[in-house]
TrEMBL record:
Biased composition (Low complexity): 722-745
Transcription regulation recorded as keyword: yes
Any one of the GO BP annotations: regulation of DNA-templated transcription
This protein's name: LuxR C-terminal-related transcriptional regulator
A GO molecular-function annotation: DNA binding
Database matches in PANTHER family: DNA-BINDING TRANSCRIPTIONAL ACTIVATOR DEVR_DOSR
InterPro entries tied to this protein: P-loop_NTPase, Sig_transdc_resp-reg_C-effctor, Tscrpt_reg_LuxR_C, WH-like_DNA-bd_sf
């Protein structure tokens, strides 16, 4: 025999009253009948006779279920029994606000009785029911059941039983809904279908669409809302019931209802976007519906616009006429594959397209190619289009062509007469600013690009563009050492920053030496950076972080992960930063040949553009560092000469040129401390503190006396961490034989550990030599690193070597103990 359902506290309290009087209300399947069964047992246990007929005077207690199914005279008789208060009365009913007899019953109970309303189950209550079935109530499955069922108790129980049995809870929930509808009012599925099509469940609308009288319509609206199959706050079918009513009715009946609702709503002008889409998906083909869907899509956000355009086509709109708008929406929503397919189809019939649609299709196709890392393909598209057909997009074409290294063709796309809109003005300023940055005055270029930002604002968020004014301006800032300006520019896009803008913000942190911020940003991007252009900047960022951290293992992993992008990318003016980092990684790992083709393309591009100082200085600085890393001073000279020529134009290039000369002198054995310090501080001043610290650190390794090496290391530390130490001038070196030994900043034990670490011993081997644990060695190394202010393991090794540690230590042969170098 099944156990009685436990009575909730408020129900138990009402049943314990003298006399018990209780009205239970709740939707179908909410557990009213189970509670009434327990109430009957409770009353019978108290010696009361229980009956169900309100007109019979014999029973001592009345317990009536499903009062909403009783005729009006029975309900009114029941209300009279409640008002008399002569015997216990417990009633359960579904809410029926349009029925006067049930309102009278509610009023009778409301005066001197308990009213208990049963609500849908909350996630916490569902978790409790799951536990009683032996399920572990994990949060996500419980939330999924709640979303599926809306908290309808019987549907929840069906879904939980399926989870317990290892079957599909969605099928089980839908089956429970089907069972309910199969044995009920045959008109109820029609009302639920109407709700699923976006109907408001207004009785007048229900009467018109279903062809019933007003009283019957009100009855059906009440029944639908009391079914437990609609959401509490929106009259929308719960997911478990979304497809069931239509399956019960059949396709023809659903389509008939949809056509009636569409005609009614279109005539009244009251069709919402969701309802219009649902009607189209239900098979309504109507010219007015199609036109409305297109209008709604034009004003919608990209993701919603895509579904609305598709619905418009199902409703009868011309698919070919919507291809441009569909491609734009797909691209803005991040679906480059669909955007590319649609523009290919458009360009295949270019001869039949109006000029405006052809220019738009070309712009979208060029944007898809640019985001896939093929700006050369974008340039090909605009060369094919030509200035005569580019129209108002001519400035966009000029920007693409110049960034792709085709200045002659770019010049042919002059300022086309176009409507003086904000988007047209922004495009013209962007093209002019980029052109000025390549062959004119950098200050004018920056001013022009900044004005493009101001005009651009939010006006072009509905147009797919090969790149944004924010990105191009920020890149020019990064190439010019204007890190604060880059941050400010990218900060303007905080309302909805794209992956590209966030990556460039991370690059700003990397170049400025804020490695923790850059690392945190890099860790965010893996799931999002799906486009090749973004992946190039992401891999360049990770390689740059690994290089600056001195972690060869991490550098190798980052370089390996970048190979797919390296193999596919084509160089353009806006991708030189990540290319430079990848170049240095390749040189460091002995795989420069794997990126030589891209380096060659970049150098050819700069040559074609007549060596623009603002853009070329950064790549040549990478070239200087690549020559140093490869220990090939001769390869440094062309880059040093290019920087020297650029120094006449920009202060940024002048600082890089001085640093390049200092590097060359260091490689030639002339590590003049004053020159090195000046160059390091110049690099820090133009936003390259890490580069300045590395220059000073490498110079420290090449001087003979410890005092000078220590002073240069202090310069490196001060440049990299300005608050860590004062920047005092490096001393003039004295012959090593005459120099007194500089006092060591380390204790004797730390000095012993340092000697062995520099020699390459593992923590275990160091501990074995010194008769201490590997963990103690690790603590010593951490203290040494803090004491010297080393920012990375490689910097620590450089500083220890400069202090003379490790010179006399001979590493013994290891026995394959799996030890890892304490500081590789």
């Amino acid at each position: 025999m099944p156990q009685p359902t436990p009575l909730p506290r408020d129900v138990a309290h009402a049943v314990a009253a003298t006399p018990p009087r209780l009205l239970l209300t709740g939707p179908a399947g909410s557990g009213k009948s189970a509670l009434l069964s327990s109430v009957r047992q409770t009353l019978a246990g108290r010696g009361l006779t229980v009956g169900t007929d309100p007109r019979s005077p014999a029973p001592a207690a009345l317990v009536v279920d499903d009062a909403h199914t009783l005729p009006a005279e029975s309900v009114l008789a029941l209300a009279e029994q409640v008002r008399r208060g002569e015997r216990p009365v417990v009633v359960a009913t579904e809410p029926r606000p349009h029925r006067s007899d049930l309102r009278a019953l509610l009023s009778a109970f409301g005066a001197h009785s308990a009213l208990v309303e049963l609500h849908p189950l909350s996630p916490r209550e569902i978790a409790g029911r799951a536990a009683t079935l032996g399920l572990t109530p994990r949060p996500e499955p419980i939330r999924a059941v709640h979303r599926l069922t809306g908290g309808a108790r019987d549907v929840v129980d069906a879904a939980l039983a399926a989870l317990r049995d290892g079957t599909d809870p969605r099928r089980a929930a839908a089956a429970r809904v089907r069972d309910r509808l199969g044995g009920g009012d045959p008109d109820l599925p029609r009302v639920l279908v109407l709700a699923g099509l976006g109907g408001t469940l207004d009785p007048l609308e229900v009467a018109t669409v279903l062809g019933v009288d007003a009283d019957r319509a009100r009855e059906l609206v009440d029944a639908a809302r009391a079914s437990g199959l609609l959401t509490v706050d929106g009259d929308v079918p719960i997911p478990a019931a979304a497809a069931v009513p239509a399956a019960v009715l059949g396709t023809h009946a659903v389509r008939t209802l949809a056509h009636r609702l569409a005609a009614l709503r279109l005539d009244a002008g009251l069709l919402t976007a969701d309802a219009a889409r649902a009607l189209a998906e239900a098979g309504v083909a109507d010219a007015r519906l199609a036109a409305l869907l297109v209008t709604l899509a034009d004003a919608a956000e990209p993701a919603q616009a895509r579904t609305l355009y598709d619905a418009a086509i199902r409703a009868g709109a011309d698919a070919d006429a919507l291809d441009v708008r569909r491609a734009e929406a797909a691209g803005l929503a991040g679906d480059l594959a669909t955007a590319g397919q649609l523009t290919d189809r458009l360009l295949d019939r270019a001869g039949a397209l109006p000029a405006g649609e052809l220019a738009a299709a070309t712009r979208i196709a060029a944007t898809v190619a640019a985001r896939r890392g093929m700006l050369g393909r974008s340039a090909d598209l605009y060369e094919w289009l030509g200035p005569e057909r580019a129209g108002a997009d001519a400035p966009i074409a000029a920007t693409v062509l110049l960034a792709a290294g085709r200045p002659g063709t770019a010049a042919r796309f002059g300022t086309e007469a176009a409507a003086p809109t904000s988007s047209a003005a922004a495009a013209q300023l962007l093209a002019a600013g980029l052109r000025e940055s390549v062959g004119g005055d950098g200050r004018v270029a920056m001013n022009t690009l900044t004005r493009a930002l101001s005009v651009h604002g939010a006006t072009d968020r509905t147009r797919l563009l090969p790149d944004t004014p924010e990105a191009i301006t920020a890149l020019l800032c990064l190439h010019s050492g204007e890190l604060a300006h880059a941050g400010a520019v990218l900060g303007r896009a905080t309302a909805a920053p794209s992956v590209r803008h966030r990556l460039l913000a991370a690059w700003t942190a990397l170049i400025g030496g804020d490695l923790p911020a850059a690392t945190a940003a890099a860790d965010e991007f893996t799931p999002h950076a799906a486009e090749q252009r973004d992946l190039l900047f992401l891999h360049g960022l990770r390689v740059g972080l690994a290089r600056r951290g001195g972690d060869v293992g991490a550098l190798t992993a980052a370089w390996t992960a970048a190979q797919g992008v390296v193999a596919e990318y084509s160089v353009d003016l806006l991708s030189l930063l990540p290319l430079g980092e990848l170049w240095l990684a390749a040189v460091r790992l002995g795989e420069a040949d794997r990126i030589a083709h891209l380096v060659g393309q970049a150098q050819d591009l700069l040559t074609t553009l007549d060596e623009p100082p603002l853009w070329g200085a950064t790549l040549h600085w990478y070239g200087v560092q690549a020559a140093i890393a490869a220990d090939r001073p001769a390869e440094l000279l062309p880059h040093a000469r290019a920087l020297g020529a650029a120094a006449e134009t920009t202060a940024y290039a002048a600082a890089l040129a001085r640093a390049g000369q200092a590097w060359l002198r260091v490689l030639q054995g002339d590590a003049d401390p004053a020159r090195v310090q000046a160059a390091a501080e110049s690099l820090a001043a133009i936003g390259l503190p890490w580069d300045g610290a590395r220059l000073a650190g490498e110079a420290a390794l090449r001087v003979d006396d410890t005092a000078t090496a220590t002073a240069l290391l202090q310069v490196a530390r001060a440049v990299r961490h300005p608050s860590a130490a004062p920047r005092t001038a490096a001393p003039t070196p004295t012959p090593a034989a005459d120099a007194p030994a500089a006092p060591s900043p380390l204790s004797d034990r730390e000095a012993e550990v340092a000697d062995l670490v520099v020699a390459g011993l593992t923590y275990r081997e160091v501990g074995s030599r010194l008769y201490i644990s590997a963990k103690t060695v690790e603590h010593h190394v951490a203290r040494i690193r803090r004491r010297l202010g080393a920012g990375s393991r490689s910097e620590l090794i450089s500083m220890l070597r400069a202090l003379g540690h490790g010179a006399e230590v001979r590493q013994p042969a290891t026995s394959g103990n799996g030890g890892i170098s304490a500081c590789p």
